[in-house]
Specification:
84% helix; transmembrane; transmembrane transporter activity; MATE_fam; mainly alpha
């Protein structure tokens, strides 16, 4: 009898293991269906910015510092607001798709366009008065003048964010974002020859580099418009409608809480770049710190794919009312993301200094980057955890709580620690980066605790209430402009 019982227990254990492997495999396929196109799209989109920086780095060290300043401060400031506000689209579209309210997704998308367009237009002085702003915060005059000129060139570029960010979130909520991956690959592919043409063939230098950046970024948006308006989203896009102007206030509220959450995260790096600008050799410090940040953020684009996947999977399952599936999704996401993070951690440790010469020919900047290589590697490893946790928070609509966590961990811990170590010790730029890591570690630990303590059954109820507030029946929503028109 004991042998029979033991055999049965072994068989049951094998069946449980087999069932667990099958569930992990099924969930992994769902995750990668959203994550892979998101990773490709984000890597390519950010890649165009990094490639432009690389070209400018071989034109002038002052312009490289100016570009780094604009990209790290102005663009990240505006992009943070728009990305954060657009994540409201991610929450609403993901939960609507899970609840079967497909026709509402097109309305949420249009509402986001309205809110984001108005917001970006209000923020334009950040680019128009770039020189004055950089001088006001104490940057060197030559860097401030270069940054002010580059800021004006960034204006046509940043308007693509209004559409590219929201459309990607709208499509990935329906697992239809593979099209964005293909368009993004083509965008990145044409960006390099465009840059070579404008910079060297037409002898346009810095202006040519910025012109190529704007052209390639808008190619992505035009491709997305063709896909949506061309009838490839028949269930979620019913045409333009006046319903997009209704109930804007609740969307604005959710967008603001989303915006604050993401902004506090993205601006954190910007403040640290600003600290680097007050170092004794500002050009080298800003260039080295910014290049390391760009390498860090480029790898982060992979994990932002998992952020998008986390948001979609959590939002979809909450929309369906399945709290158990949410918990299982979080475990599989973290396991996958950390495995990839370990791979890049080893890669950065191995090729730290060699990466520097892709972005600059200045030996001083390359040496400064080499000194930061270990800290950069550790940051890359942390990238595999906190974006996934942020995605879980966005999918559940918990942006407000995470915004508070980001503020405390980044601005009351990370930045003061970076300033203290950077200016009162011999660590300098290394000290600033240690502060960066300190803020990220405390944020990660806090959000892990927050998610661990979350009652997911209660989150299911909140998702249902949220969708109920915004819901319009299809026959109550008169579309005034059809796709045919």
């Amino acid at each position: 009898m004991d042998d029979e019982m033991q055999t049965k227990l072994i068989q049951q254990g094998q069946e449980d293991d087999s069932d667990l492997k099958r569930r992990i495999w099924v969930e992994s396929k769902k995750i990668w269906r959203v994550a892979l196109p998101g990773i490709i799209a984000r890597v390519c989109a950010f890649g165009t910015i990094v490639v432009t920086q690389s070209f400018i780095g071989h034109i002038s060290e002052t312009d490289l510092a100016g570009y780094a300043l604009v990209q790290a401060l102005s663009v990240r400031f505006v992009n943070g607001i728009l990305l954060g506000m657009s994540s409201a689209t991610e929450t609403l579209c993901g939960q609507a798709f899970g609840a079967g309210q497909n026709h509402m997704m097109g309305i949420y998308l249009q509402r986001s366009w309205i809110v984001d367009l108005i917001t970006l237009t209000i923020l334009l002085p950040v680019f128009i008065f770039g020189t004055q702003i950089f001088k006001l915060v104490g940057e060197e005059e030559s860097i401030a003048n270069s940054g002010g000129y580059i800021s004006l060139w960034f204006i046509p570029f940043v308007y693509n964010f209004v559409f590219s960010l929201t459309i990607q979130m709208y499509l990935q909520a329906q697992s239809k974002n593979m099209i964005i991956a293909w368009i993004s690959i083509f965008q990145f592919t044409i960006h390099i020859p465009l840059s070579l043409l404008f910079i060297y063939k037409l002898n346009m230098g810095l202006s040519g580099a910025m012109l190529a950046l704007s052209f390639s970024s808008w190619f992505l948006v035009i491709g997305e418009f063709i896909y949506i308006f061309g009838g490839w989203c028949p269930h979620s896009w019913k045409g333009f409608t006046v319903a997009a102007f209704k109930d804007l206030l609740p969307v604005v509220k959710l967008s603001i809480s989303s915006g604050v959450m993401v902004c506090l995260e993205l601006w954190y790096n910007a403040f640290l770049v600003l600290l680097a600008g007050y170092m004794e050799d500002a050009e080298v410090a800003i260039a080295a710190f910014s290049i390391c940040l760009n390498i860090n953020v480029w790898e982060l684009m992979i994990n932002l794919g998992f952020l998008g996947s986390a948001c979609v999977r959590v939002a979809n399952e909450l929309g369906r009312g399945n709290a158990k599936a949410v918990k299982f999704t979080i475990k599989v996401l973290l396991g996958t993301s950390i495995t990839i993070g370990l791979f890049f951690f080893i890669l950065c440790l191995t090729f730290g200094k060699k990466l520097a010469y892709l972005f600059t020919s200045d030996v001083r900047v390359a040496d400064a980057i080499s000194d930061l290589s270990f800290l950069l590697s550790f940051s890359v490893l942390l990238n595999s955890v906190y974006p996934v946790l942020s995605g879980v928070a966005v999918g559940a609509g918990m942006q407000g709580a995470v915004a508070v966590v980001n503020f405390v961990c980044y601005y009351l811990i990370g930045i003061p620690l970076g300033a203290l170590l950077g200016y009162t010790t011999t660590l300098e730029v290394k000290g600033i980066w240690i502060g960066l890591i300190g803020g990220v570690i405390t944020q990660t630990i806090t959000i892990i605790y927050l998610i661990w303590r979350t009652d997911w059954d209660d989150q299911v109820k909140k998702a249902s209430e949220r969708l109920g507030r915004f819901y319009l029946k299809l026959n109550e929503d008169p579309y005034e402009i059809s796709n045919e028109s």
